[in-house]
Amino acid sequence: MDLSVGIKISDWLKSSVTVRDALNQAMDEELERDERVFLMGEEVAQYDGAYKVSRGLWKKYGDKRIIDTPISEMGFAGIAVGSAMAGLRPICEFMTFNFSMQAIDQVINSAAKTYYMSAGLQSVPIVFRGPNGASAGVAAQHSQCFAAWYAHCPGLKVVSPWNSEDARGLLKAAIRDDNPVVFLENELMYGVPFEMSEESNSKDFVIPIGKAKIERQGTHVTLVSHSRYVGHCLDAAAVLAKEGIECEVINLRTIRPMDVDTIEGSVMKTNHLVTVEGGWPQFGVGAEICAKIMEGPAFNYLDAPVTRVTGVDIPMPYAKILEDNSVPQIKDIIFSVKKTLNV
Amino acid sequence: MRSALSFLSNALSRISGSAGAQTVSELLIDLSEYASLMTPSELTEAPPTCAASLVSPAVASQPLAEFNAQVTFDLKPCELYLLETGPAHTTQLTRKEGLQLYQTMQTLRRLELKADQLYKQKVVRGFCHLYDGQEACAAGIEAAISRSDHVITAYRAHGFTYTRGVSLKQIFTELTGRRGGVAKGKGGSMHMYAPHFYGGNGIVGAQVPLGAGIALACQYQGNQQVCVTLYGDGAANQGQVFEAFNMASLWKLPVIFVCENNRYGMGTPVERSAASTSYYTRGHFIPGIRVDGMDVLCVREATRFAADHCRAEKGPILMELQTYRYHGHSMSDPGISYRSREEILEVRSKSDPISLLRERMLSNNMASAEEFKEVDTMIRREVEEAAQFSCSDPEPPLSELCDHIYSNEPPMEVRGTHPWSKLRSIS
């Protein structure tokens, strides 16, 4: 219905929510919905979360459901996994995924593989979440992207939201999923507001894990990305559109299981593919997409080899000029699209 | 030499006798047992004189009035750490309980010896870590908790797998990797599961935080259950164990940490791996008990004490069970390069948990030697049947290769070894 001034009521109903608040609301709703759900991690309770993602939850739910842990990643990740084996539905927060390396044995050997090893006798409904990948000025030990490492392993689901709607729907889906889910957030996105659709208001709004979303329709080239770089792709697409190049931008949303069908369908339409990620190139998400495309029907539709746009193959430096040039910039995406299209 | 001859004659008369399930396979087991030094008492056993009947040990054929229905035993006091009082110094054992404990331990013993045999026949592959010698730990702990409590252990797991309710058939068939195995052949020796039994864990020490987590779930759900979390003297030096100690203590989780100290972490004796071998004190701020792990009644009484402690919401407690394994670390370790045959023989002759219990019951007139033999015979038959089944059960179908990746999911495609191999996975 249109008002005479040309503003749709539906526009009024849309609200703008930051990624942080979307994650917070999703956890709040799931904690309320199912008393087996609880959150544990460093500073999640009384500090309101290192990045304030869990703000207000401890005040509302108390010590039993929001648990501050000591700095013992391997120990508390194991405790979280054990509690999932015994009937609870934990959300285990890593302050950043860099610290998950201390606990990676519990994620892989205790969580991911158990349902298979037990032939279905023992499931592990757990979510491991936290910020992943580059931040700003935190240098090498605090900037690694773990998408490729975790997505390598059968038994895990690996999810990487971009915007607030992704964050809300995918986190709810992850918490309701009976499997171990690695939920890769992005610290630089926490404060970014996005408009939310009306349907996302529902407390049962979930985004299916394993399904990518076409954020922008296009005809000349397919851009595939996840997390923060989806935004970079859309920005690049806007610039390229002015030159008459129409990019189709796919937001993976889930790294494992990856929605190859959506990528293939798009490539069979556009005949060109560029992948964009923040992580390192070798053995990365883009490398996997290249391999999958070659093995499927879309290969014969390619008019050029697939191009990967990735982080630079170095540990992350500190100085701003160095850091800025260690991750994909919009101009890198534009350049790569043009090279791929040979224009 | 005399004992060797009497052993051979016993074995031969058992083969030709009418009693029980004595097969060539049983003879081979007995021979292999002898080769790794049997206890003298077993060597001088007289062959059964009567035809065996399959009698449940709880309902033996002799009139009950002949025996003592219940006897009180003195127990070796436990060393205590951060505790004013410890487990009781005496325990009451009924005839029925005694026979049940005996049956459990003897079943575990025969299970492991049969697994040894199957491994040497190459129908069991990979890792096989045997528990013989440590039977009193599993049997004693299980006798003091209930099935609604929880147990998690490391890879030397066959004992608890059985006491937690998995049948011999399902255990052997998992070892031989067939479709009837408890994990359908997907897990093997180290990955067997049952309700409230979380394996079977291959990564040393990882099970300790898991066990604390299971205890957290018990506390969270308010169900008064406890989690018995076992680890060895080798795992006792893992960092994550101390992380689990800290959190369990902070949050007063109802977890009984049990260190099964069998003196050797693979090939390394405890003195060479631990700055402190007083494992029952290594919980620092967690109260501890050091228990004779070869005496099933000691283990039972100590576990009762520990479970009471946890259920009273006093937080975690640590039990060190001093025990011994007759086999090497695994089937690829003969177990005699880092310890002497004399040491093994000495433990077998002086501290064998099964012999200790049997002699206690015999000398207190709680049961007859014949009854024990009937139990032995019945167990041998059960083990033999289960093992035979495990060798004849078919292997898992290849169509199930990719099943059980995810729980509660619609069927999905899994990539095989090459792009044209598209396999199916169901939950």
From TrEMBL, chain A:
<dbReference type="GO" id="GO:0004739">
    <property type="term" value="F:pyruvate dehydrogenase (acetyl-transferring) activity"/>
</dbReference>
<keyword id="KW-0496">Mitochondrion</keyword>
<keyword id="KW-0560">Oxidoreductase</keyword>
<keyword id="KW-0119">Carbohydrate metabolism</keyword>
<dbReference type="Pfam" id="PF02780">
    <property type="entry name" value="Transketolase_C"/>
</dbReference>
<comment type="subunit">
    <text>Heterotetramer of two PDHA1 and two PDHB subunits. The heterotetramer interacts with DLAT, and is part of the multimeric pyruvate dehydrogenase complex that contains multiple copies of pyruvate dehydrogenase (E1), dihydrolipoamide acetyltransferase (DLAT, E2) and lipoamide dehydrogenase (DLD, E3). These subunits are bound to an inner core composed of about 48 DLAT and 12 PDHX molecules. Interacts with DLAT.</text>
</comment>
<keyword id="KW-0786">Thiamine pyrophosphate</keyword>
<keyword id="KW-0809">Transit peptide</keyword>
<keyword id="KW-0313">Glucose metabolism</keyword>
<keyword id="KW-0630">Potassium</keyword>
<dbReference type="GO" id="GO:0046872">
    <property type="term" value="F:metal ion binding"/>
</dbReference>
<dbReference type="InterPro" id="IPR033248">
    <property type="entry name" value="Transketolase_C"/>
</dbReference>
<dbReference type="InterPro" id="IPR005475">
    <property type="entry name" value="Transketolase-like_Pyr-bd"/>
</dbReference>
<comment type="function">
    <text>The pyruvate dehydrogenase complex catalyzes the overall conversion of pyruvate to acetyl-CoA and CO(2), and thereby links the glycolytic pathway to the tricarboxylic cycle.</text>
</comment>
<comment type="function">
    <text>The pyruvate dehydrogenase complex catalyzes the overall conversion of pyruvate to acetyl-CoA and CO2.</text>
</comment>
<dbReference type="InterPro" id="IPR027110">
    <property type="entry name" value="PDHB_mito-type"/>
</dbReference>
<keyword id="KW-0479">Metal-binding</keyword>
<dbReference type="Pfam" id="PF02779">
    <property type="entry name" value="Transket_pyr"/>
</dbReference>
<protein>
    <recommendedName>
        <fullName>Pyruvate dehydrogenase E1 component subunit beta</fullName>
        <ecNumber>1.2.4.1</ecNumber>
    </recommendedName>
</protein>
<dbReference type="InterPro" id="IPR029061">
    <property type="entry name" value="THDP-binding"/>
</dbReference>
<keyword id="KW-0670">Pyruvate</keyword>
<dbReference type="GO" id="GO:0005739">
    <property type="term" value="C:mitochondrion"/>
</dbReference>
<dbReference type="GO" id="GO:0045254">
    <property type="term" value="C:pyruvate dehydrogenase complex"/>
</dbReference>
<feature type="domain" description="Transketolase-like pyrimidine-binding">
    <location>
        <begin position="17"/>
        <end position="192"/>
    </location>
</feature>
<dbReference type="GO" id="GO:0006006">
    <property type="term" value="P:glucose metabolic process"/>
</dbReference>
<dbReference type="InterPro" id="IPR009014">
    <property type="entry name" value="Transketo_C/PFOR_II"/>
</dbReference>
<dbReference type="GO" id="GO:0006086">
    <property type="term" value="P:pyruvate decarboxylation to acetyl-CoA"/>
</dbReference>
